[in-house]
Amino acid sequence: MEELLLIDSVMISFNERDVLTDVTINCRPVDIIGLFGHNGTGKSTLLKMVFGTQWGGRKFIRINEKVIKSPAYLSGLLSYLPQEPFLPAHLTVRKITELYIPKEEINNFLGDKHLFKARDSKIGHLSGGEQRYLEIKLLLYSNTPYILLDEPFASLSPVAAESIREHIHICSAGKGIILTDHNFREVHKIANRIYLLHDGYLREIKQESDLIPYGYYPD
What we know:
The protein is of the alpha/beta class and 219 residues long. It has helices at 43-51, 93-100, 106-110, 128-140, 158-171, 184-190, and strands at residues 5-14, 17-27, 32-36, 58-63, 66-67, 78-81, 146-150, 176-180, 193-198, 201-205.
């Protein structure tokens, strides 16, 4: 079986404005794809359409040779980190971990220096950065083979961001990961493939200098 997330022919318009125009991208395990693009270019819309929480438009999604006709989140093959917090505030860190992580791996998961002291705290008592860190790590170490991360570095301290980059690198050995973040330098540090959304179209970026005309890495 071919292991591949294929996203093909994605199109959507809002108020007669084309936001995404025939966008195509593929992601395999070991891929860490950085999705660049300024505000309003459709990065979050693309990730939501792939995951299945953005309605309208047109798309073709295939995961490991299975054509996904219903929302992809129902397949169990794809996880998505939205920009907004999504964990139930009344559950503890330990309890939510038990829902995502295999039993034999829970103690190691909670032994993380960023989580250990908060392991018995309720989600609602965590700081924004602590909750974001937990959300990302839960998705990365869940059993889904493909992960979409929207603004993962938002609210993270530099130390926590470094740890998340390490976890992304570790998990990419068996998972395909697509991420986007306003802090494009953090994305560039970890991504092994870069794409740019501009004027509704997606193009692959081969070298850093290709981003300069779009306002990244001023010359």
